[in-house]
Amino acid sequence: MAQDPSKAAKARAVVASLLLVESVVIAALGVWLLILTFNATTFEFLPLLGVLLFVALGSGGLAISAVGYRRGKYFGRAPSVLANLIALGVVSYQIQAGLWIVAIPLAALAASTLAATLRAIPE
């Protein structure tokens, strides 16, 4: 069953846009955590290194996946699915902690990106 190339391009563009939003959110979270680290009364190097690795791998990986989707490649599908399943798991912890203001937007973004990723079919 052949898919309309313009619909496939639109589906890829939606996925790429959502992945870029997620990438920016992770980068912003990393910057916020860095600011908290430098404003803390004590400084630990290993947690800072963990934050930097999280930001580099998470944000960078999603950005690379987004670029791939924009170019019509689907190598970013598995990382996108994995990252959004992890995000949905994080949502459950946010709900348990009563952080609804974080849980609801994160759930909406992760679920919509996951659905869009799974719906975008390679040509």
Helix content: over 70%
Tally of contiguous helical segments: 4
Number of domains: 1
Q: Main β-sheet: number of strands, strand sense, barrel status?
A: none
General form: globular
Overall strand count: 0
**Sequence stretches where pLDDT stays below 50 over 5 or more residues:** none
Radius of gyration: 16 Å
Mean pLDDT: 86
Proportion of strand residues: under 5%
Question: What pattern of helices and strands is seen along the backbone?
Answer: HHHH
* Helical/strand content category: mainly alpha
Distance between the termini: 10 Å
Task: Give a verbal description of the structure.
This protein is mainly α. The chain has one domain. It is 82% helix and 0% strand. The chain has 4 helices and no strands. Helix 3 runs antiparallel to helix 4. It is globular. The N and C termini lie close together (10 Å). The relative contact order is 0.16.
Comma- or semicolon-separated keywords:
123 residues, mainly alpha, 4 helices, 0% strand, globular
